Amino acid sequence: MKKHFMQAITRREMLQGYSAGFGMFAMAGLLGQEQARADALTAPKGPLTARPPMFPAKAKRVIFVFMHGGPSQVDTFDPKPLLTRDHGKPLPFAKPRVQFAATGNLLKSPWEFKKYGQSGLEVSDLFPHVGACADDLCVVRSMYGSNPAHGGALLAIHTGSDRFIRPSMGSWITYGLGTENQNLPGFITICPTLGHGGVQNWSSAFLPAAYQGTPIGNASIPARNAQVNYIKNPETGLDLQRAQLDALKDLNEDQLKHFGYDPQLEGRIQTFELAFRMQTIAPKLMDISDESKATLDMYGVGEDPTDNFGRQCVLARRFCEAGVRFVQVTHSYKWDQHGDLRNGHSRNAKEVDKPISGLLKDLKARGLLKDTLVLWGGEFGRTPTAQGDDGRDHNPNGYCMWMAGGGVKPGFAYGATDDYGYYAEVDKMHIHDLHATMLHLLGVDHKKLTFRHGGRDHRLTDVAGEVAHGVIA
Length: 473
Fold this sequence. Notes:
Blueprint: H1 11-17, H2 19-41, E1 61-67, H3 81-85, E2 113-116, E3 121-124, H4 128-131, E4 137-144, H5 150-159, H6 169-177, E5 187-190, E6 214-216, H7 238-259, H8 263-278, H9 282-286, H10 293-299, H11 307-321, E7 326-331, H12 341-365, E8 372-377, E9 381-386, E10 392-395, E11 399-404, E12 412-414, E13 416-417, E14 424-426, E15 429-430, H13 431-441, E16 451-453, E17 456-458
Parallel strand pairs: 1-7, 1-8, 4-12, 4-15, 5-6, 5-7
Antiparallel strand pairs: 2-3, 4-11, 8-11, 9-10, 13-14, 16-17
């Protein structure tokens, strides 16, 4: 007998008759969560609006000084006396099962290490200027990754994944915290490399387009000539541009009302608006002629061979000072010394040593270093064993990076590789751990900074990562 519509039904009958409905309830809940995120990102104040950290932060912004190619840890910031003693002998333990290329016996460093500052931190003769800043450095000597190839390793250090297209760490940081200047992008990369992943290294991937890195020039363009593309419009004044954008915005918003949330269209609207605002401030920031001669000299601007990288570092300080959340400068692609190690690393270090020390000193003098996290390093290190007569192969199994400012312990060495510098052994720090630690210094829990895409919640550290509390002051 057919039950009346209002007639009571048993729990069993309800579950039998409405089982498909629970799936719809679940889907509605998920869609509601995604729409809530979308609404937050497209609020009237804009997706780049500065947001408070999850807990008290030690750092407010990041400058990533990237050495593309992989500088050698045993020739820069990780001294190995036994490597010098046993030069020319076989490595006394097994090499990795998977190697990028074959290497021979141990190769000592051509450079001496010296103790610098009150901390006595040891730094190679390659970096005398950075060595003078040793009391501000926190050198991580126990980094390790999983990919020995440049392409995968670059993606890993930038995005946390060496095989999938994922948002860059700069994108994640601006997604979580916004930025402090609404007239500038939250994430800027100066003279980035176009190889080994290229744009994927500063891409926002599935995050909203507002968090995409904005490139200024690229590695093939001298920093002197690097500009934001189309930042000036010599034919159309600001008033007419504003009117055109308002008309276009009305059309786009009408489209959104009729068809619902469209992240690509929202991204275009936000990009147009930011580009318009940037016209009033970016050109002035890009013009470093108002810097004092003493400041430019400190960075090595106007000198050979430091001018190019010195200009990048000056711009990084200017953008951070103006409120940009994440800035990257890239020395590309020069540190891949499979041969001619002595000449190659010497030339590279001369180009960046003075500019990097200038950046640290300038930030400190302006009171910015205390809440600016400076990160230095490459995509991996190099083998302590020789490739050919005078070269080192790729080595993701143990290498070093360093941090300064932003709440890390100054004048401090964290972790260690083995006696020859091949494998990370003590207080090992994976790339996921580095990213987790950076986010923690910024006041963000890496496990809670998530974005739902493709049916699951993603994060910069994927399903791994531990905060290295030992580096935090």
